[in-house]
């Protein structure tokens, strides 16, 4: 049974995930600053693990179908730390897309319920992008 209630742990996890996305965005805006990008990655991964739990996070990242995404995300992070932020972010983005591609339909439904973004997502071209992934949901 899946619990959709927002307890304090999930609120903290979503906050950490949000700060991770924000710091990653700032790192890209400031010409791929490796400190901000690294902080964003650490906050994002820790936020996801706090939100869904450590056991579920390990199961998600260690699933056989997610190995390619997990390895490329980790290698990208390592390359970013070593001093090549643009190459690291490209490899991380590839891993991120592989890991979270099963969540696009859920994201599409969520975005359709937001007032202004919902209208945008329902436009024919953008809707066709989300329709490609329909039916490919990954059970969590």
TrEMBL record:
Cell location: Golgi apparatus membrane
Gene Ontology CC: one annotated term: Golgi membrane
Gene Ontology biological-process annotations: endoplasmic reticulum to Golgi vesicle-mediated transport; retrograde transport, endosome to Golgi
Membrane topology: Multi-pass membrane protein
TM stretches of this protein: 12-32, 38-57, 69-87
Keywords for this protein: Golgi apparatus, Membrane, Transmembrane, Transmembrane helix
One Pfam family per UniProt: Got1
Recorded family membership: Belongs to the GOT1 family.
Protein name as annotated: Vesicle transport protein GOT1B-like protein
Species in which this protein is naturally found: Phaseolus vulgaris (Kidney bean)
């Amino acid at each position: 049974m899946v619990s959709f209630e927002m307890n304090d742990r999930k609120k903290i996890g979503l906050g950490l995930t949000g700060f991770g996305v924000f710091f990653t965005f700032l790192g890209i805006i400031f010409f791929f600053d490796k400190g901000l990008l690294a902080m964003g990655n650490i906050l994002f991964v820790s936020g996801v693990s706090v939100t869904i739990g450590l056991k579920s996070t390990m199961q998600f990242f260690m699933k056989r179908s997610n190995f390619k995404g997990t390895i490329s995300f980790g290698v990208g992070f390592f390359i970013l730390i070593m001093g090549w932020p643009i190459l690291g972010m490209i490899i991380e983005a590839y891993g991120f897309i592989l890991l979270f591609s099963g969540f696009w339909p859920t994201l599409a439904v969520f975005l359709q319920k937001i007032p202004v973004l919902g209208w945008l997502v329902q436009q024919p071209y953008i809707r066709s992008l989300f329709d490609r992934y329909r039916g490919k949901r990954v059970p969590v």
